Amino acid sequence: MSLRPVLLLLMALLLVPGAAWAQAAGIERYEYGDYEAAARLFEQDLANTQRPPAGKALTLSYLASSLYALGQEEAARKWLEVLAREHPEQRVDPARFSPEVVALAELTRQQVESERQREEARRRMNASASRSLRPEVYGLFDAVDRHWALGGGIAFQRDSLEGGLRVVLADPPVFQLQGGVLPGRGASRLFLGLRASLLPGVKTYGAGPVIGGRIALPAGLVAVVDLGADYFFTGRDDRRRLAVTAQVGLGFNLNLR
After folding, report:
1. What percent of the chain has pLDDT over 70?
2. What is this structure's pTM?
């Protein structure tokens, strides 16, 4: 056995402060290709409560790379996930580590970031679910008549209940009042309800079921999608009695709590 690695290890133990010696020794073993010993030293460094916090990101990177070199990809991914959660600004240095480890670290960081964004959207949705007003703008497509129209409105939500008033800017204008329930919790919620429509210009009114969805987006925005079928009660023979519509829009939650 060569004495040089042993001497270097002893020098590291003597020169590096006690709280950081495991990291320095681990890096020395890593550079000599002794990944199993390096991994043990990096795990020991992470378990040391006296270790300076500033060095943890580097230790995590080296530990993950050591485990990857040993063929333990899932274990390496676990520590890269810890790195992404606790040090989201830290990137694995491509000058120190292999391209495979750098790519795995970036993929893991993106997955953690996506999860964090979904959790944040879910938290906003749950926080705003108690009582909120939601101004909306949307586009409406009539599948029977095959025409588009724009509209706007406002919705009120309390826990799992939602009611709203909308105006379709058509000829003649259509006023819609709808209400329903939002089962479940989370960033994406199903909407089940009923809708009443009034066309005061032609003395016609209608009603029908609605099914849709509400999807929480960043910055308090909410995507709104509704599919409805309305049966109209009218005395005029020139007006059809059934309308099948799709409404897609964007709202902004105003928390009233």
Report:
1. 86
2. 0.49
pLDDT single digits (tens) 136-158: 999 999 888 788 999 999 999 98
Q: What are phi and psi of 201, to 5 degrees?
A: -70, -25
Tell whether omega for the bond before 173 is within 30 degrees of 0, i.e. cis: no
Residue 124 class from Cβ within 10 Å (0-12 exposed, 13-18 middle, 19+ buried)?
Answer: buried
Start-to-end C-alpha separation, the chain: 71
Distance of alpha carbon 198 from alpha carbon 59, whole angstroms: 67
Long-range (24+ apart) CB contacts under 8 A made by 21-29 are 22/48, 22/51, 23/51, 23/55, 23/58, 23/59, 23/62, 26/59, 26/62, 26/63, 26/66, 27/62, 29/5
Question: Residue by residue, what is the 3-state secondary structure of 197-227?
Answer: EEEHHHCEEEEEEEEEEEEECHHHEEEEEEE
